[in-house]
Design a protein that fits this description.
By secondary structure, the protein is of the alpha+beta class. The protein contains 3 helices and 5 strands. It has a 5-stranded antiparallel sheet with strand order 3-2-1-4-5.
Length: about 140
């Protein structure tokens, strides 16, 4: 009888410990983490080029970071639906750019809605970048 009581007590403690551990595993927020670094680099490879500008952006419940317009940038980021190539979908057809090669690379690195992101795109020059991004708030820094 004594062993049965000890076994039941031990099992009850294990159940309580398991329940406590499960309760601690809950997220502290309903919003998936979104914290990213965006950069504009001179060169055709972000790893070897010269970073011209960079900014941080967090889009959880509030928009924060070093980006000059975090709310507009988060709205632009959300409009991509996680497909960062959608940033390239609205080039300005009326803008003429020179045909010289002076590459500029834009990057997006971090976590967006809980998923790891590492995206980059290279433009032939700064004018092409500006015309292709067409005033998108995400890279307006």
């Amino acid at each position: 009888m004594r062993y049965r009581l000890a076994t039941v007590s031990a099992a009850a403690l294990l159940c309580l410990a398991g329940a406590t551990g499960a309760a601690q595993a809950k997220p502290t927020s309903l919003y998936a983490p979104s914290a990213m670094v965006f950069s504009i680099t001179q060169g055709d490879d972000a790893a070897t080029g010269t970073v011209l500008r960079a900014t941080t952006l967090s889009c959880a419940y509030t928009a924060e970071g070093t980006h000059p317009a975090p709310r507009a940038a988060c709205d632009a980021l959300n409009a991509t639906g996680g497909e960062f190539n959608r940033l390239l979908a609205a080039p300005n057809p009326d803008r003429a750019c020179p045909m010289h090669y002076d590459p500029v690379t834009v990057t997006a690195d971090g976590v967006w809605r809980g998923s790891r992101v590492a995206w980059q795109h290279t433009f032939s020059n700064a004018c092409e970048m500006s015309a292709t991004l067409n005033g998108n708030a995400l890279y307006a820094f």
